[in-house]
Amino acid sequence: MLRTELRKLLPYRTAWVIMLLFTALLAATIAGAGGVTVNGQTLGAALYALPGMWAKLAYIAGYFSLLPAFLLIMLITDEFQYRTFRQQLIDGTPREQLLLDKLVVALLLTLWGMLSVLVAGVFFGLTRNPEATFGNVFSGAAEPLLLYGIQLLGYLSIAAVLALLIRKSTPAIVALLLYVWVVERLVRYFLPDAIDRFLPIKALDMLTPSPFAQALDTMLGPTGALPPAQAAVVALGYIGLCWLLGAFLLRTRDL
Fold first, then answer.
1. Per the UniProt record, which residue ranges are transmembrane (predicted)?
2. What integer is the mean pLDDT of 67-95?
């Protein structure tokens, strides 16, 4: 299963372009954000301060989570376009295995995202904190990395459902963008905070809250957002639901 998907993924030039673009944009944003000046003060010291740096890096990485999601959509829709799903069925591969193969790809992309955050964190943690050691840098990294991994897997899971439903890359990518940027935000507008915080994208975003969220809560009052630990439970529920829906689509529709 893993070997088969790697054989498809590794020679795919577009995949490498998107994954390396993700890593490069993340590193460039982290480097650039340190030089931003707010109220006459440079953010660098606060951004790279340990151990809080990891939560900030996970928040920044969240802005680029759609890139791996686009890649997964392209990989899945290519299976329909080139009829490789149909050929695998003819060769005796169960439909459930087809879905598990794509879940493996989603997990690989999640690991790439987490590894990118980890490498960036180690680099900037050591270079921007002269007194830092490897032990200091890794302190506090586990929880933000895990929460970011859940967030990225959540975006990938939604992307997988749309790809399996629509089966064409461009419409599926447009549908994902519309849902993330338009549809759910419109739905939130009509719902009270007690309900809208359980919507998929909002729950995913709460896994890596803004570094300024606590200060905003102090000034404006609590927003009602889920704490990251609770958001993780909701997100994992949505992830499971997405892949169950994907299994239903593969089982009931003609490939």
1. 57-76, 103-126, 146-166, 173-191, 229-250
2. 93
